[in-house]
Each structure stands twice: as structure tokens, then as C-alpha cells.
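Notebook entry, structure prediction.
Reason for the run: the old model in the group folder had no record of what sequence produced it. Starting over properly, with the input documented here first.
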Amino acid sequence: MPKTSALDRQRSVYVGGAAGKRPKIPIDLSRLEAAARKRMSTEAWAYIAGGAGHERTIAHNTSAFDRWAIVPRMLRDVQERDISTTLLGHSVPAPLFLAPIGVLEMVHPEADLAVARAAGALGLPFVFSNQASVPMEACAAAIGETPRFFQLYWSRSDELVIHFLQRAKACGCSGIVVTLDTTLLGWRTRDLDLAFLPFLRGMGLAQYTSDPVFREIMEAPDPAPVDRPRPTAKAVYTLIAANRRFPGSFWKNLRSGAGLRAVRTFVRIYSRPNITWQDLPFLRQHTDLPIFLKGILHPDDARKALDYGADGIYISNHGGRQVDGAIAAIEALPAIAAVVQGKVPILIDSGFRGGADVFKALALGATAVGIGRPYCYALAIAGQAGVEELLANWMADIELTMALAGCKNLEEIRQTPLLDRKA
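New structure, fully documented this time:
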């Protein structure tokens, strides 16, 4: 993959404009969101863009960056610039990765596959979602040699958890991202108003329906009584959708009821609200991959994560989708970085909207930043090409922000104090 600079990216946009060619996706984030909304169904937009409760956490995730200001320094040699870094021993071209987002089939027909190809083209790591629309094996083949991770939702089935870990290792994943903040779904008002949960239509279940252990669980008798709704037109549509998304022949699935059984099985075993710190050694017993704990927001939890042998901390409030009024991810970073003291990598997502945000996170102690909703919006507008363009734009934005602030590499960013307006 040839190295390109921010100036190359800028130049290509302006030269293209001189010839009457506009970018595939809007570069301004508000315009990107507006354009994506026009491409997405009402249900898809609610699911991707929405959050918990009054969505105060979504708003605060972005506004919290205003607390810290970059103080540019002048007359520094930034002729040669380098935003590359390493993550778990892998060289990557920028301190960025693509965060896990489920049910991407609602956004674009190629879903996770298009994102994996875009990540591979740019060399940026991708965290495969546990709720993906494409099995991890297909995404691993599409991403090439680029680092990849697997997000794990801790199922009620230990056997399924173990097999997911084994599949992730076989797919060449460099680590497991254990999501701790979604043992229960948050009170997501937009989805509730539409009475829409995509998993009940068989969406976002590809990791499960492609798994032989899950298939065995499906065939076991359901211990819970089955609620059979009246056969309305919508219920019939839901039944058809669930069977169409299940692997194999649609008519065979319809006759056997495989799609509906998959949905019911998923709902029954999806997550374990009773997991505690004492359960973490179970994962270590069954994988030698590095383990990142995702959803850490309190410094005491970061300290406990280190005590329990976590290989990385992942600061996140799930993009504001779980707890209304929660602390912003960037607010949690300084105290957690003070606890970690460079012992393990610190990943962070939730609320990032461009290069200046990434600069601030690096200066406050982050190792790498996860892009979330913005790549979904680019995917909705222009598929793989849209995601590639968005990633190239972010890399250019980081490089230019870094240089104009007087830094020529990430190490200099990490040594740059920010102005804390609350100090």
C-alpha cells in the first residue's frame, strides 16, 4: 500500500474539483449524516443514529471535546510527518481502527464485507462485530493481511463463547474485545417508538447462524414457552425475513422453521447480565489472544482490569446507546490513562468526529481511536468506496492537525499539553 500524505489527499480533491469531480461522500460531518439519512430506511437510521433515553450521552460525547483546546506552536520543522504507529506489534498507518458496529446489512447490502475490504485497502484495523451481518471468516479473507480483532458479547452458552474464541484465532484475529456494557439493551427510544429490533428479523446474526455450536443449541428443546403472535401480515413478513437470512435454501428453512428458531435461540442466550470480574479467567483459559475490556469508564475499573490481567483497556460508552447521561468517553480518558501509565494499550471510541478529536485523545493518553457512526454513514452513501474515502479523509485531517499544531509524529502529540478550560 503506497504511503500518501495529507497534501496528496487535499490535492486530489482540489484537482478533481477543477475537472468537475466532487468527492463521493461529503467531508463535513453534518452533511455526511444528512446525506446518509436520505439513503437509509427509517428503522436503519433510528438503530444506527439513535441512543439511550433523551440521547444526552450522544450529545455530550461530542461536546465534551470542547473542554480541551489545542495550543499550536510555531516555527517547528514539520516538513517530514509520520502518523503511523504500532498496535500489539502490528505497524498501522494511523492511530485509527474501525469500531465494531452490528447489523450493517441495514446500511448497505455488502455490509461488513465492504467495510473489511475498505479497512484492508487502507491498512487500518477492523474489529469484527459479534452482531455482524457477514461471518468473521469471510471478513478475514476480505481484509487481507491487515490486523483484525473480534468483539465478543458474552453469551449464556459457555460452549458458544469458547467456539467464538477459537474461530477468532483461526481467522487471524490479533485480540478479543470483550464488550462489558451491553449485557442488557439500553432504553433506546427511537427503536422502541418504531417497535423495531433488527435481530428479531434475523438481521445481525451471521456469527451465530454460521456457527456449528449455535446450530446444535438451536436443535435442543426450548425451555421457555413460545409466544405465538397472531398471524398478521407483519408477522408473516418477519417470518419470511428470518428464514431468508438463515443460511441455505429459503424454502427448506421455511419448512423447517430454522430462521425463526435461530432468532428465538439468539434471544434466549444472547448475553449474561451476571458476569463479574471473577469470570474473566474463563476467557484466559480458552484463548491465548490478547484480551481488551470494552466499556471501561471508571479509573477503578481500569485498575481492576489490570489486576485481572487485561491486555488492553477500551474506553467507550457504546456511542451513547446504553446509559443516558453517562460520562463522555473523552472525559474518562485522563484518569484512566493515569492509572494505566502505559502498561497496556488504551483504545477509545464514542463521539469522535475528526482529526482534531483524535489529536486530543492521543495527547490525553490514548493509543488509538475507533471510528464508529461516520464510517456507517459513508457506507450507506457509497459502499466500500465511501468508507475508503472517509478513512483517507480522517488520516489527512489527523496529519494536518498534527503539523499545524507543531508536531511531526505521534510521540510529539503525546508530549503536547492541552489547555484544560476547566482547570
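Summary: The mean pLDDT is 94.
The old model has been moved to the deprecated folder.
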